Every structure is written in structure tokens, then in C-alpha cells.
Amino acid sequence: MTNYLLLLCTLSALTLTAQQTHTAFTPADEVWTDTDGNHINAHGGGILLDGDTYYWFGEHKVAGSGGNKAMVGVGVYSSTDLYNWKNEGIALKMLEDTSSMLQVGSVVERPKVIYNDSSGKYVMWFHHELKGQGYKAALVGTATADRVTGPYTYHTSVRINPGVHPRNLPHWRLRALGVLLDQAEEEKLGHKELGEIGAFSLRDHERGQMSRDMTLFKDDDGTAYHITSSEENQTLLVSRLSDDYLTLTDEYYRVLPGERNEAPAIFKQDGRYYMISSGLTGWAPNPARSAVADSLFGPWTDLGNPVRGSEEETETTFHSQSTYILPVAGQPDAFIFLADRWKPKNPIDGAYIWLPLEFEEGKPVLRWRDRWDLGVFAGGVGE
Ligand code: GAL
Questions:
Q1: Which of 87, 137, 159, 172 lies deepest, with the highest CB count within 10 Å?
Q2: In order of start, what are the domains of the chain with their CATH numbers?
Q3: In testing the pocket of ligand 1, which one of 283, 321, 322 has its CB within 8 Å of the most ligand atoms?
């Protein structure tokens, strides 16, 4: 064989390896290749089913320790079988314009997209931090597109609900508590206690509430909600979106005050809402939590750590943090738990932990599987 032929054979063999077809989820593999053979780059992601195609939106990371900054934008992948994902490019691009809040080098995390049936628009919400300001801005950004894969047009980034009191914490109650917000009081009480009583809610009343880790939930009747880690990450806020999904209405509630939840992921089963979330340890994993409610606005009942496994698995949620819970189309009780295994030293290497959600005694439960496929749902995963 000539050298040329040999090269051709090697190249096609390489291409074949790279373009392997997946027939299962393999959380044990640190790399999940897309249809081009590259590790999928869509962290802190969420999934939208549009027609018979799933679209996975997520943070596009870059190599190196600075790779958690948004240098490129929000990536999008498509799939019809959930195992094989095609790179559809960058849905929302970071802007070179240094006068824009969305400039390259700011922080864009946990993007979620829902479709508005009335306007025909795809609406993206994401956690947004301004360039050079760490995590102190605590904003939520919005963008819309006419096509699911984009390009998405950036609208704005804001603090939420300025000048509006949460429905379950009227102003008079705060006043009655006699909350003092000076530095001394803050130090005496500590963040958790201040979170419980609503002190940060009052502090941020005029400017608007903080919004960091967030998700969206579109209910069966088309009403959509924004669920976010607020009040110095001590309390979740659940707000109803306007009919066009572009803004929040003034209907919002404080949820699990002082419980310090991040990474909220929501699903609905048999008319009840379930949430899996994490505690607050930055990129390091911690034990997951779960809760159930009859309304997204609460009250929420704690269901404990959903992980069943070794001590290490229970303490670290399989070394991952929740990002989304995906209902499998056409299978009423089939849900997939999506989580990120962050790699802060080289964020682009972050891995994806997808596991089937099981139910035991009315509680969502997660067990490790090296490899699994959608067939597990046919056998039933719990009651
Ligand atoms: C995590 C959060 C991530 C990211 C990180 C930054 O707790 O879930 O989305 O914000 O902190 O340290």
C-alpha cells in the first residue's frame, strides 16, 4: 500500500472512531462526544423539546482556569434520541461591544429556554454577572429568538422584583420584626438567620432582589415560572412570568427561607411539583436535597437527600450538582436527572451526570449507573 493509501485508511478509521453512535448514557465516562466526536460543551444546561427534537442549551466553557467566564456564549445541541447530540452552534453570542452588559468575559450561567405558544418566540433566561465584578451583580438576563437554535437577541439583565414585596412576606411583618440591617446586626445574626427572617428581602427591596442559580418551569397550562437562588443565596424566590415570558409579574414568593438552596431543578408528576437542589459550596459538590409541593409557590416539604449509594456518593451527589430534570417525551413517569461534574481547573472538561429518576415511598431517588438506556423506564423505576 502506498503511504497515501495508508494515510487515507488511518484517517477514515479515525473518523469512524470519532463519529461513534451512542446507544446508552454512560455517566462513568468523563467524555460524552457529540456527533462530530468532540466533548459536548453545554454546562449548567437545560433542555427544550421542540417537535420531536430535543435541544440542549448550556454554558460554552473554554480551556484553562479562566474558562468559567463567558468568552463565547450559550451553546445549543440537538438530538432525537437523547444519546447522540449534534452541535448546532452558539445560540446566544457574547458581544464584543464593551458598553454592553453582555460583553465577552462576563459570567453567563444556567441558561434555560422555553417556547411561548402565543408569540412564537423562544425565550432564554440565564444567570448573568457583570464583567470584573465577581458574583456581586446577581442579575438575570433574557434573550429571544424566532428559531430554536437562534441566533438569540439579547434583551437586558436585571435585579428582580424591584419595589415589590414577596406575597408571603408583607412589609408590615418585616417592620414588626424590627429588623435592623446595619453591619453589626448582620454579623451578630449571620446570613442564615437573616435569610430566614427576610432581612435581605427588605435590604434589596428598592434595588431589586438578587438572582443567581436559576431555572424556568413551564406548567401544563402554559404559565411559566422563574425559580432562583436569591437573598445572598439563603432563600429561593419563585416568580410567575408575564404571558409573553419576557418579564416577571409581581406575583412572587419566598421559598425555603434560610435553607440555602442552589442549582434548583423542577419536575411535575401527578399534579405535584418536585425540586432537587444543592447546598452552597461553589464548584465543589455537596449533598443534594429534594422537596415536594402542591404549588410552585409552596409550601415546600423537605424530602431529604435523594441519593441512595455509598457515603461518598451521598455526600457529593456522585460528584455533581443538579441543573435540570428532563421529562422523557411520551413516557409519563420517566424523568432524567441532569447534573454537572464541574472541573474548575479546566472547565471545558466538565462532565455530565445523567441518571434516571426513581421513586420510592413518594420520594424521588437517584442511584448510580455506569451505563443505562431509556429501556429502564419500560421496566418501571419505582412506584
Ligand atoms: C455554584 C453554582 C454555579 C456557579 C458556581 C460559582 O454553586 O451552582 O452555577 O455559580 O457556584 O462558584
A1: 137
A2: 38-158 (2.115.10.20), 164-217+231-259 (no CATH), 261-372 (2.115.10.20)
A3: 283
